[in-house]
Amino acid sequence: KQEVTQIPAALSVPEGENLVLNCSFTDSAIYNLQWFRQDPGKGLTSLLLIQSSQREQTSGRLNASLDKSSGRSTLYIAASQPGDSATYLCAVRRRDNYGQNFVFGPGTRLSVLP
Amino acid sequence: EAQVTQNPRYLITVTGKKLTVTCSQNMNHEYMSWYRQDPGLGLRQIYYSMNVEVTDKGDVPEGYKVSRKEKRNFPLILESPSPNQTSLYFCASSSSAGASDTQYFGPGTRLTVL
After folding, report:
1. A43 touching B, CB under 8 A?
2. Which of A12, A27, A101, B71 gets the highest tally of CB atoms within 10 A of its CB?
3. Do residues B113 and B86 lie in contact, with contact meaning Cβ atoms separated by under 8 Å?
4. Does A100 lie at the interface with B, CB-CB under 8 angstroms?
């Protein structure tokens, strides 16, 4: 059974710092891994999607990497800003049942202090 | 504007009173899905649909029903709600089942069953 964990559960940093969020999964048979951002009272917004054949994706100050063999992904945020404060979730798309099932991690709650 | 909409956004009901949460997307997406989000448990997939008249169970389908009679709509039905179904519910959609397809989420429905 696929399980997804995220470390740390919560993180507080001063504005301007670079930071790394971690995501681990137990089964390497995945179609893709996606990072989301969730703001309080709102839905999830997709940040980056890495296909199983890819190693990393970049968007602005965000960089996500994927090491399928070790079951790990990291989300790197450069020069953090208070507006980055949110909960960050990773999710893997499983390959069983034609790869239609998604498994989410519990999230990392990030606070960026001005 | 491309979006996933859910109604209602907030609902308080009593045990046993049938209810339906609607979900609609305007992106002509084939794949749609329902999740519930609970503190400490994260997001868990309830049901998903690959296309019209094609639905399948996710990880926590007990107590829920879905239907997909039209491509744009994917309602979630609770025939006899119970207090353990109190949760935050999200609908999501994606273009298809491809490895590069991003999921788009609705704003969420907060359900309380008394």
Report:
1. yes
2. A101
3. yes
4. yes
